[in-house]
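Repro:
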Amino acid sequence: MKLIIAIIRPEKLVDVKKELNEASINLMTVINSIGSGRQMGYPETYRGVKHEIRLLKKIELQIAVNDDYVEPTIKAITRGAKTGNIGDGKIFVVPIEECIRIRTGERGSRAIG
């Protein structure tokens, strides 16, 4: 079992969800987030004063999958999120020690769904 965490551009969420759906991956958590990376922000002028916007809006996806779905999930996210420009995002794959479905008490791979 793995937890796949993807940080993507907000405007690419629809494309990523479409690709995940086509790969039969439908369960996910979507979080609005802000952060900085190599994109380094952008300058903005407000009431005549220049400001450097360093924290950019991003979307964080958290998807728990069984081991068989790790590569299809990564490929689907990459296909949907890639623009070829700095700021496309990152994907992290983290092992899950245990998963428990609260409603039924199921554990492990069966609890992920």
